[in-house]
Structures are given as structure tokens and as C-alpha cells.
TrEMBL record:
Protein name as catalogued: Putative Type I site-specific deoxyribonuclease
Listed GO MF terms: type I site-specific deoxyribonuclease activity
Species the sequence originates in: Nitrosomonas nitrosa
Phylogenetic classification of the source organism: Bacteria, Pseudomonadati, Pseudomonadota, Betaproteobacteria, Nitrosomonadales
Keyword Hydrolase attached: yes
Residue span, SWI2/SNF2 ATPase domain: 87-143
Source organism, top-level taxon: Bacteria
Top-rank EC class of the record's enzyme: hydrolase
């Protein structure tokens, strides 16, 4: 019944973070990007204001609902719900932006540089889901 919830938000009025119905304490994260707006727009904002302005604006929230939340089976454990972290959301959408706006193969390509354990594989899952949901990008294929 509760798996239909997109995400959970915790806020004290100043601090704020988010997770899913299956997230443990260690999997709640603050939202730190204002994408597609410049992140400099967040100067002076507290965590709650950043989360509301960056994540909960209509476009980003609907995008997360449609393409950036998935269920995953764990090794011998329960199925969990995963929603993108801010850096995954920004990276996936910047990849899509390059595919849409690049004029040459070089402009459409690039490198995603994340550290170990940062969710690169899930970022690519989110890119694949955005591609599949975008009518103008149906010709692109993902090879594994």
C-alpha cells in the first residue's frame, strides 16, 4: 500500500532530507541542486528551502516520479524502493540535455565522473528511463 509513495521528506523547518518508504536512516539525503536553474540561486537558502525549490518544483518532481524512482531486489533481502539522489538527477538530465542539444557526436558525448559507491549504475538506469519516456529520443539505444 505505501509503496505508491514517491518519497518521504523530513524537515525541521531549517534542515531537510528525503528518502523512500524503505529507506533506513543512512539513506536519507539532503537535496543540493537547483537544476535546471544555476546552483548559485541557492546561496543563502537553508536545506529545506533548497529541497523545496530544487526538488519539489513541478517539473523536477514529476520527472522524479516518472523516471527516477525504481524498485530493486536486494541479495536475499526485501525489495526496496530507490529514488535518485540530487547528483544522479542532475547527471542524468545533463546527459539528456547533451543528447538533445549537441550538434556533433563530440557535443553529444562526455564523461560522468562520480566516486566509487556514488550510484553510477543507477544514474544510467535513470538515463535509460528518461530516454524511454522521451518521444524525441526514441532512436537512441543503450548497449550493456
Amino acid at each position: 500500500m505505501f509503496h505508491g509513495n514517491l518519497l518521504l521528506i523530513r524537515s525541521s523547518g531549517v534542515e531537510a532530507d528525503y528518502g523512500t518508504i524503505t529507506s533506513g536512516e543512512e539513506h536519507f539525503y539532503p537535496w543540493k541542486t537547483q537544476w535546471p536553474q544555476a546552483d548559485s540561486n541557492a546561496e543563502g537558502m537553508n536545506q529545506q528551502q533548497q529541497l523545496v525549490n530544487g526538488m519539489l518544483n513541478k517539473t523536477n518532481l514529476f520527472s522524479m516520479l516518472r523516471t527516477c524512482s525504481v524498485f530493486m531486489d536486494t541479495n536475499g533481502g526485501p525489495r526496496i524502493k530507490v529514488v535518485c539522489r540530487y547528483q544522479q538527477f542532475r547527471a542524468a538530465n545533463k546527459i539528456i540535455e547533451r543528447l538533445r542539444n549537441g550538434q556533433t557526436a563530440e557535443e553529444k558525448s562526455g564523461v560522468v565522473w562520480h566516486t566509487q559507491g556514488s550510484g553510477k549504475s543507477l544514474t544510467m538506469v535513470f538515463v535509460a528511463r528518461i530516454l524511454r519516456a522521451s518521444g524525441d529520443l526514441n532512436d537512441y539505444k543503450i548497449l550493456l
